[in-house]
Design a protein that fits this description.
The chain is an alpha+beta fold. Helix content is 50%, strand content 19%. The radius of gyration is 29 Å and the shape is elongated.
Length: 474
């Protein structure tokens, strides 16, 4: 992994050098727009003109779908922002993650902001591939629909960030005067065409990643998130490591081992296990704490992925349940697991199930992974080919690399489609929203006020999110 990161960073440096030399050689063809350097060409104009003229009927039919998709994306991104604001404003500062709510899609951002558990690695090479696909289909789609409605395409090209040419995008320059004179439907079709294309690419790569996953990965174990646990009244605790104790928090804490060893904590009814760090990290103001049950899994500290039991492969929850049914309480079994350090094999004694003493008990737990909200459901949909709690092992060394690349292409296309439909003046969604309000009110004055109000409201909400995030560091 370290060697690949070095290789990836070397590629980043070489790309910056190449881009700098290229822009220097082509400086006669360059223009500027604020902090962007524009490299204009005519190479894409012929393709845009050909498609825009050749498939007029098809593009007219697609315009209705494109505009509908624009509205769906606009509503979805506004719901997402509302949910995010609500979560941030109702979450205590101490529990807010230390990553900005407005996340920059730059290489290595999961590592920079401590989000490795949420996102796969985001290498520069992923960024380049995804950016080329996202920007090209987005801008060319704008151009094709513009040509369909007889709007002149002046040029195509690439825009480079002046101070860091590794950040770039594509553009299609159309005649804005002609655009403004077109019917509202035609303008909205052109404006929504870019995000429509991004959604089509998202769907295409979703199909690709599902097929690729089925060919390049195989079920290799069961992942569990935690051990069986219980909520215990502090006053009910009678012993710590076999020693009688008064059931008060501080007395219990003083008797726990200082090292990383497990402590045996008992009530009159049941025994529990916990490390001191886990015990003292909890809010005990309600007179209760969470303790792990004295289960075989916690007692022996088996890893997070179970791959075999007595040599039998475990590939699903059904496999695990069916295999455990073969044994009786107090029988010894050999369990093979995968931890961060690699594979481990552990012999453990199975216990009796607290709820049914005729059955065995391993004592592993599975956290609720239900994805809530609009985008949680979208995430679940795009992961339908994965069985929950199953660990999939790659068949080739490069399987994970390619899968993560496809995953980022899907995510970035979807993110760009959503972001671009925000009703802000500098985005496609800004003009799209303006034309919508104008169609409803027939009043330019009301439309301008509504547009300004929406813009200020969104900027205020985004600023509020950032302020709440900044307070995390104080």
């Amino acid at each position: 992994m370290v060697n690949f990161i070095v290789l990836d960073l070397t590629f980043l440096v070489l790309f910056i050098i190449f881009a700098t030399i290229f822009l220097s050689i082509k400086r006669k063809n360059l223009g500027s727009d604020g902090s962007l350097i524009l490299y204009r060409t005519q190479w894409g104009v012929k393709l845009i003109n050909y498609v825009g003229k050749r498939y007029k009927k098809t593009l007219k039919a697609l315009s209705y779908i494109s505009i509908t998709m624009g509205y769906i994306l606009m509503v979805s991104v506004l719901i997402l922002i509302a949910q995010t604001v609500y979560i941030y404003l109702t979450t205590p500062i101490a529990k807010v993650i230390r990553a900005p709510p407005i996340m920059p899609l730059i290489p290595y951002f999961p590592q920079l902001f401590g989000l490795e558990s949420f996102f796969p690695p985001f290498y520069f090479i992923y960024f380049i591939f995804a950016l080329i696909i996202v920007a090209s289909v987005h801008e060319f789609s704008h151009g094709i629909f513009a040509k369909r409605y007889n709007i002149k395409i002046k040029s195509t090209g690439f825009a480079f960030f002046k101070y860091f040419p590794a950040l770039f995008g594509a553009f299609v320059e159309q005649d804005e005067k002609q655009m403004r004179k077109k019917k509202r439907f035609e303008q909205m079709a052109v404006l929504s065409a870019g995000v429509f294309a991004n959604i089509l690419v998202t769907i295409l790569f979703f199909v690709i990643i599902a097929l690729y996953f089925s060919l390049s990965f195989s079920a290799g174990g069961i992942m569990f998130d935690t051990y069986s646990y219980s909520i215990v009244n502090i006053s009910d605790i009678t012993k710590v490591n076999g020693l009688p104790i008064n059931g008060e928090y501080q007395n219990i804490l003083n008797k726990l081992y200082e090292n990383d060893s497990l402590n045996n904590i008992s009530t009159d009814r049941k025994d529990y296990l916990a490390k001191k760090s886990f015990f003292e990290s909890q809010d005990y103001s309600g007179g209760k704490v969470v303790l792990y049950d004295n289960s075989p899994a916690r007692k022996y500290g088996i890893g997070g992925v179970i791959t075999e039991i007595n040599g039998v492969k475990i590939r699903s929850l059904n496999d695990l349940a069916n295999e455990l049914k073969k044994y009786s309480p107090n029988e010894e079994v050999e369990i093979k697991t995968i931890k961060e350090g690699g594979e481990e094999t552990e012999k453990i004694i199975l216990d009796e199930n607290p709820d049914d003493k005729t059955k065995v008990w391993l004592g592993i737990g599975f956290m609720d992974r239900e994805k809530k909200g609009v985008f949680g459901k979208i995430y679940s949909f795009f992961s339908f080919f994965k069985e929950e709690y199953v660990y999939y092992s790659p068949k080739h060394n490069w399987s994970v690399f390619v899968y993560d690349l496809f995953w980022w292409i899907i995510l970035i296309n979807l993110a760009v489609a959503l972001f671009n439909m925000l009703p802000l003046g500098f985005l496609d969604g800004g003009r799209f929203f303006y034309l919508t309000i104008l169609s409803l009110t027939k009043s330019k004055k009301i439309t301008e006020k509504a547009f300004a109000g929406a813009t200020y409201l969104l900027l205020f909400l985004l600023l509020t999110l950032m302020i709440k995030w900044i307070l995390v560091f104080f």
